[in-house]
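Q: Here's a chain of 246 amino acids. Please give me its 3D structure as tokens.
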Amino acid sequence: MGAIYKRVVLKISGELIHENSKNLAISHELLEALCKQIIAIYGLGVELSIVIGGGNIFRGHTYNGRNSGFMRTDADKMGMLATAINALALRSTLENHGIDTVIQSALAIEGIVDRFSIQDADQALKLKKIVIFCCGTGNPFFSTDSAAALRACELHADILLKATTVDGVYDDDPHKNPNAKKFDCLSYGKVFEKNLGVMDLTAFVLCMENNIPIRIFSGQKEGEMVKAVRGQSPGTFIGNRENGNR
């Protein structure tokens, strides 16, 4: 069975390549496992772009306020640079497997990565290259979720896939409540009504207003990415009811 989407933006949490037990910000083993899943969906013929977070190295929002030692704007810029480090690691690993990959940054980092261009990204995707976006939106106070939603809108993606350390959206914290219920499918309206924190509000509204469906699933379970692009329903699907639970 092939992919049901032509163009996909994949948001990856930096936590997926972080190994606490060995105190490794970037685990080669976890990065290889992640790339194995990415290569599998790329092999289905989708035009694939990736937004990777930097939480395994530095989370800007956790240093919010003067009392933390950093100004919020500086902390967020540090977080953006963390995503560039992850993007370089991801590209290097993918290219070791023979996958043609480019990085585009929302911030100018001359000599390390290229600057973001919608036209260049669109052309690279049409040439079947994987495009990795880093440094968020290039602005403080915006998360990498917002960057992923923005890139999905700009590139007219069919869906935004969000690979995280949880296997979907629940009505309560599943780590604290063993009876928490996982949702298979939600409308945009229900997410608002139930006040579910699927991603930051800016990102969610961008997707809702541009009618881009979202699927949230575990990036730690082998094969879940392939299921997502094949429409086999891992995690939680969010979109208009008429879109269906594809």
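Q: Can you summarize the key feature?
A: The chain has one domain: 7-243.
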